[in-house]
Amino acid sequence: METARVARAAFPNATFCLRMRDVLGPLFTDEAFAGLFSGRGRPAESPGMLAIVSVLQFVEGLTDAQAADAVRGRVDWKYLLGLELIDQGFDSSVLSEFRGRLVDSGCVEALLFDSVLDRLKAVDLLTVGGRARTDSTHVLGAIRSLERLELVGETLRGALEAIAATAPDWLRSVAPGDWFTRYGPRVDAYRLPKAESERLELALRVGADGVMVLERAGRADAPVFVKSLPAVDRLRAIWVQQYYRDSDGVHWRTRENHGRPPGAIAITSPYDLDARYSVKRGTSWNGYKVQICETCDDDLPHLITYVDTVPATEADIDTTARVHESLTKRGLAPAEHLADSAHVTADAILDARDRYDIELTGPVGHGNQWQSKNPDAFDTDAFTVDWDTLTAACPQGHRNTWSGAALDRHGKPRVMFTFSMTDCTPCPVRSRCTRAKTAARTITLRPREQHELLRSLRADQQTEHWRRRYAARSGIEGTISQAVRAFGLRRCRYNGLAKTRVQNILIATAVNLTRMDAWLAGKPLGRTRVSHLATLATA
């Protein structure tokens, strides 16, 4: 093939694209994507080729137009894609249409991500049963942050803009004349009033105007397509969250009056209904969260085996079992899974061991009570429990007077032990045990298996052996840093959870191919940077 001859002459030392083709062959086949296309009509561009180009975009950080130009003009891309030198490529709009089909298919992970992992397993660069590590990071939505008054104003403006583009004559006949100037410019905070009374007045005026739009769009004489406009649906959804109505009219929701939506469902932008506002360790953002799991065996490249994009408000612990289930179903389950404390609880450790035969390793906390945070206080570990008789002894040797089952605020079973006021009141170390003025000490423990497991783990994680073993988890931070800095993981290119999930799957696939190429080229694994001051401190 002329393309191969020219590519090898132009790049005698090979490049990323040449090595991909030589080691893995054609990455994707057209047959795998047949379900995304109709059997009738004009033939589509090769979906296998479009899939490779979509991944290469993130490998090199290219836009659709730049990627289409690379297909036309770069010989190494033509070699990887299996194209003739004279191939003219395709229009850049095809890539956007292809991603839309991937979103609609709902199986982009199997079509792209798992397909590459299967190839890597076939060439012995990915094995199962070793070690893996997991962490999450925030992803910023492709939207601007809006405070409440901006949100409702911009939502109404967007709805009126959509109606003006599709039914201008109808809008002109039903809208007051001042709407066209009031809601024409983009809503920005610096244009809004600063006084609280004026802001409330404006919020109520916008709310009443939005209700008028919804009512008139719902009338029988309104154009049918106006009722089904996405912008009108977004207006309705956001108005339900921000306003309430009674016999006196439209009112602004507050925490005291009819409440406001919880963060898990609160819409923060009319242009991305899936984005959520969240805060974690002092970092606040509006968008999503991505979970990443990668292999970390020393004798193989570190490859991402799981990637998922979830709402920003979803807790990390809620994803642990999902990671294990996905890896097990796809034949990629590790023997040991390293994770941080946000992914680890007694329930998660037992679930991983019993259901998936995975050893989940990570630091477990001592609880949220003040006694657990004070080294001189008596936390629950200071009490001796006889589970056979369901009795407990405090550090002074006094036994409880009552015990029984209970549920915590999450509905999980707990066991309570209550001691006697006769013993607690005159106790000389009472201040180290409880801050209650009159009540006796009560301790609440997990069921026996979980309690004993946590005590054992807390003791184990104080050893040097455990620290050295767990130190491998920190490498996932480097993977996240690479994905953020080199592949654009931090910011969404598109709006919506489904499209963002496709973006992050493409990024994970690009990371894996880049790491495979670095491994084949003999490049050493990256090392964590340590500042000169930190080096002097440990010398």
Number of helices: 22
Categorize the overall geometry: flat
Give the low-confidence spans: none
> What percent of residues are in strands?
5-15%
Subunit arrangement of the protein: single chain
Mean pLDDT comes to 91
| Class per helix and strand makeup | alpha+beta
N-C termini distance: 59 Å
Q: Outline of this structure?
A:
The protein is an alpha+beta fold and 539 residues long. The protein has 22 helices and 13 strands.
List keywords for this structure.
alpha+beta, six-stranded mixed beta sheet, 22 helices
Structural description of this entry:
- This protein has helices spanning 2-10, 16-24, 47-60, 64-73, 75-81, 93-105, 108-122, 148-166, 168-174, 179-182, 196-217, 224-227, 230-242, 317-329, 346-356, 370-373, 421-424, 448-460, 464-470, 475-487, 497-520, 532-538; strands at residues 131-140, 243-246, 249-252, 276-280, 283-295, 304-311, 336-338, 359-361, 384-386, 391-393, 402-407, 413-418, 442-445.
- With 539 residues, the protein is α+β, with helices and mostly antiparallel strands.
- Strands 1, 4, 5, 6, 7 and 8 form a 6-stranded mixed β-sheet that branches. Strands 11-12-13 form a 3-stranded antiparallel β-sheet, with no helix packed on it. Strands 2-3 form a two-stranded antiparallel sheet.
- Helix 4 (64-73) crosses helix 5 (75-81) and helix 14 (317-329) packs parallel to helix 15.
- The model has no long low-confidence stretch (mean pLDDT 91).
